[in-house]
Specification:
alpha/beta, Rossmann fold, Four Helix Bundle (Hemerythrin (Met), subunit A), 2 domains, five-stranded parallel sheet, four-stranded antiparallel sheet, 13 helices, 14 strands, elongated
């Protein structure tokens, strides 16, 4: 599956510091990449209603990480999936009377256009579940060889007891500290089937769903059917990033069961490979609208494409997102967008009004601004702190028009572009 056309990222003088992330499993700030090669797996969309601002906020967060890694001198390998066959997509297609393939293609294309407009650096690998069925099948065979799968009325389940480290991300000894009762409740809420009769454990999850009448199916070692969600991401991540990689990223609603289960699958399938799956887990907060978390079931979604169609500058949308720390929950309001539009205008006016040859007293040195932006992003992607540094420069520059060197304005423009993804 093709990704989107990536933005040109300017080169900045020097190198940025090593980015650190708040690891969900431990709650501690952890260096995001320990070698020259940096690797990231981000769970992507299910393309039946994309791209709302919750999606945009999540992928903008990982874009900041990619940009900070590039600025620190890393070679970045970024992989993202697209769950282009799953129950919600099939249900939406049936509701709307369209072919599920057409729906998936249409919404994936919309997602690509939105990501390009927001100047998100594309993943090296954008992998759809449908195209990944053969590799998911091979991965599931590795699970079967470990004795971790069992049959239930034709469906194939993963037994969580096969993984002694189950709960390492979200269990009682982790930072989320979820009990088994809490896990069971979340499983039921987030697409699982803990109450299904015949399961060995309520938290066992579906790896291969046997063919149902009227549903798409593919041949596999387990009979005709389609893959489960958790095994999809585990298989794609291992295939394109290896058994161990740096960062697993997604929304906070994916901590359990999705990321816990994907990691558990990988630990069992790749047990002979030593350290397995992600070293650091990063999760973004939820975006609300009209007082409640954006949800397809509630219908309170704000779509990037509709904002763009209404004439909203994508850079204002991006700045509205960056005004909030990626791990925080926040609410989209008209005032948030107005504030971002005002900020964008102020920054653009400040850089375009620079015509002087000498810096006026009181205008911050641009080298200091660059250093501050780098430092803030390296500290758990503190975008609000980075914005504040450029705000201070812009406010000072606007009080002394014509007294800011062109070279200063160019470096501010490149800093905003390379590190924050904002085109001035």
């Amino acid at each position: 599956m093709d990704a989107w056309r990536g933005p040109e990222v300017p080169d900045l003088p020097g190198r940025g510091p090593e980015p650190r992330l708040r690891d969900t499993a431990t709650g501690e700030l952890t260096v995001a990449a320990t070698g020259r090669d940096a690797s990231l797996y981000a769970c992507g969309i299910t393309p039946y209603d994309a791209t709302h601002l919750g999606h945009a906020a999540t992928f903008t967060a990982w874009d900041l990480l990619v940009r900070a890694w590039l600025d620190a001198g890393h070679h970045v390998t970024y992989t993202q999936n697209v769950t282009d066959v799953d129950d919600p997509l099939l249900e939406r297609a049936e509701r709307d009377g369209v072919d599920w393939r057409e729906l998936a293609l249409r919404e994936t294309d919309r997602y690509r256009r939105d990501m390009e407009a927001l100047r998100i650096v594309p993943p090296a690998h954008l992998i759809g579940a449908v195209e990944a069925v053969p590799l998911i099948d091979r991965f599931a065979e590795r699970l079967a060889a470990r004795g971790s799968l069992y049959d239930l009325e034709g469906d194939t389940y993963f037994a969580r007891c096969a993984d002694p480290a189950f709960g390492a991300l979200s269990g009682p000894d982790s930072a989320p500290g979820l009990s088994l009762a809490q896990m069971t409740a979340l499983s039921a809420e987030r697409g699982g089937d803990p109450d299904r009769p015949g399961k060995k454990d309520p938290l066992d999850v579906l790896v291969w769903r046997a063919e149902r009448p009227g549903e798409p199916a593919w041949d596999s070692r387990f009979g005709p059917g389609r893959p489960g969600w958790h095994v999809e991401c585990a298989a794609i991540a291992v295939e394109f990033l290896g058994a161990a990689f740096d960062v697993q990223a997604g929304g906070s609603d994916l901590v359990f069961p999705h990321h816990e289960m994907s990691a558990s699958h990988a630990r069992v399938a790749c047990a002979a490979d030593g350290r397995v799956f992600a070293r650091v887990y990063a999760h973004s907060g939820m975006v609300a609208y009209q007082g409640q978390k954006m949800s397809k079931s509630l219908g309170n979604l704000v779509f990037v494409s509709k904002l763009r169609d209404s004439g909203t500058d994508p850079m204002a949308i991006r700045l509205a997102i960056l005004a909030h720390h990626y791990r925080s929950d926040w609410e989209w309001t008209p005032e948030v967008l107005t504030g971002a539009t005002t900020r964008l205008t102020r920054w653009r006016t400040a850089v375009s009004s620079a015509t002087g040859s000498a810096r006026a007293p009181g205008v911050p040195a641009v080298d200091d601004v660059l250093r501050t932006v780098r430092e803030r992003l390296a500290e758990d992607l503190d975008a609000p702190g980075a914005l504040a540094a450029i705000d201070t420069w812009a406010d000072a520059a606007l009080t002394a028009p014509g007294s800011v060197p062109l070279a200063d304005a160019r470096l501010i423009r490149d800093t905003a572009d390379a590190l924050l993804g904002i085109a001035l």
